[in-house]
Amino acid sequence: MKTMDATTAVLEKETTHAHRWRIEEARGPQSRGVCKICGEEKLFKNWLEDSDFITNEEHRQAA
Ligand SMILES: [Zn+2]
User: Fold this and answer.
1) How far is the CA of 18 from the centre of ligand 1 (A)?
2) Whole domain around residue 45: which residue ranges?
3) How many structural domains comprise the chain?
4) Cα-to-centroid distance, 25 and ligand 1 (Å)
5) Hey, which residues does 32 pair with through a beta bridge?
6) Is 38 within the bounds of a domain?
7) Distance of CA 22 from the midpoint of ligand 1 (Å)
8) Separation CA 30–CA 13 (nearest Å)
9) How remote is the CA of residue 54 from the centroid of ligand 1, in Å?
10) Residue 21 Cα to ligand 1 middle (Å)
11) How far apart, in whole angstroms, are the C-alpha atoms of residue 32 and residue 44?
12) Does 6 fall in a domain?
């Protein structure tokens, strides 16, 4: 469920960092990841995509 916070919407949307995705427990073909830095949410398939940074710990879980 997405919540649109007005305060968040005002914040600069451009990302100047490599997202550090914290991947939630996989319960299906997709897992939801939340960036530890900016809180961005993204759906991940069971493989890594793009060049987003994922920590070793999370990579182990995804493997
Ligand atoms: Zn981020």
Assistant:
1) 6
2) 17-62
3) 1
4) 19
5) 43
6) yes
7) 10
8) 24
9) 11
10) 7
11) 6
12) no
Strand partners, 23: 33
Q: What is the pLDDT of residue 11?
A: 55
Q: What is the secondary structure of 9-25 as a DSSP string?
A: HHS-----S--BEEEPP
**What's the pLDDT at 41?**
95
Do the domain assignments include residue 48? Answer: yes
pTM greater than the 0.90 cutoff: no
Torsion of CA 25, 55, 42, 7, to 10 degrees: 110
Q: What is the pLDDT of residues 11-57, one digit of tens each?
A: 556 778 999 999 888 777 888 999 999 999 998 886 555 556 666 66
Confidence at residue 1, expressed as pLDDT on a 0 to 100 scale: 64
29 Cα to the center of ligand 1, angstroms: 23
- Residue 42 alpha carbon to ligand 1 centre in Å: 10
Task: Note whether residue 40 is domain-resident.
Answer: yes
